[in-house]
Design goal:
7 helices, 26% helix
């Protein structure tokens, strides 16, 4: 069964899950995506976190895909028997019973590799956890790494966890920033070229990084404190929308770049409203984005 699954391109889902899975996309060209990030789940504030996540699960009943753009956990050292870890596994499983869930890992100090445990969560639809840059296809509630016959995918999803100097194996800070920027340009362009093979299909770029010009909760502007990615660079993907995590203030940059922000205030400085986005697509066009407060 495993070899057959691998040959068919099945990702992160068992045969039994595929048999019973349901798909919310009813053959039309429209798609609704819930975009969230920066849960920073920890045992501290667990009641507030669960309340926010329960509200999010309720809204997920209205969408076809849930995107979690990194930093699900507050610490990479979270224990699997902790209240926080148990809550996350339960919530992601419940979300996958509603619709497929695509996840990218966040920062090394928060998610680390801890969020990879969610690959073992199960639901009626697929769960995909990305720890390295990759492009996958969504089709009828599950994720594939290649086309299955001539079937048109419901969406093309490009996933890129937080780019780090360690990941690109660079030394000198200034040189590594320039090298990583060039490497990201090539990555974005490659994803764009591949996605162009599927016209009139939503192409979602999901990532966890700083965007030049984005605002922090304190009102400060990011100016090279970490590796910055520009909107112009992301436009090389020709994606329908850029759905990002890492900045805790929800915001929209340009026409199609969004930070969901954190689900609840993590510090005293985070006085802005918190929540998540629901984006609506008509074929490959983003037609509506609505922010839902938690």
């Amino acid at each position: 069964i495993y070899l057959w699954q691998r040959e068919q391109g099945f990702l992160n889902t068992c045969l039994a899950c595929r048999i019973r899975q349901t798909c919310r996309i009813k053959g039309g060209d429209d798609m609704r995506t819930l975009h969230t990030a920066d849960w920073h789940v920890r045992d501290k504030n667990i009641e507030e976190i669960e309340q926010c996540l329960r509200f999010l699960c309720g809204k997920a009943q209205e969408v076809d895909l849930v995107v979690i753009a990194g930093d699900i956990f507050d610490s990479r050292d979270i224990k699997l028997d902790s209240k926080g870890a148990k809550l996350v596994i339960r919530i992601v499983s419940e979300l996958a019973d509603i619709c497929p869930v695509a996840i990218v890992l966040g920062t090394a100090s928060h998610d680390g590799t801890a969020a990879e445990v969610l690959r073992y969560a199960r639901g009626k639809n697929g769960i995909h956890v990305s720890s390295a840059p990759e492009q996958i296809l969504l089709r009828q509630g599950d994720f594939y790494d290649h086309m299955i016959g001539s079937l048109k995918p419901d969406a093309v999803i490009s996933l890129i966890p937080q780019p780090t100097k360690q990941y690109f194996n660079q030394g000198n800070i200034q040189e590594s920033n320039e090298s990583i920027s060039q490497a990201m340009n090539g990555l974005f362009a490659g994803f764009g070229a591949k996605a162009a093979e599927f016209p009139r299909v939503p192409h979602l770029l999901i990532g966890h990084w700083n965007v030049s010009g984005s605002k922090l909760s304190t009102g400060q502007i990011l100016t090279g404190q970490e590796i910055d990615i520009s909107v112009d660079q992301m436009n090389f993907t020709n994606a329908s929308a850029h759905l990002l995590g890492h900045i805790h203030m929800p915001q929209q940059l340009g026409e199609r770049t969004f930070y969901s922000g954190s689900l609840y205030p993590l510090t005293w400085a985070e006085t802005e409203e918190k929540g998540f986005w629901i984006h609506e697509f008509d074929c490959d066009d983003l037609v509506k984005s609505e922010f839902h407060k938690t």
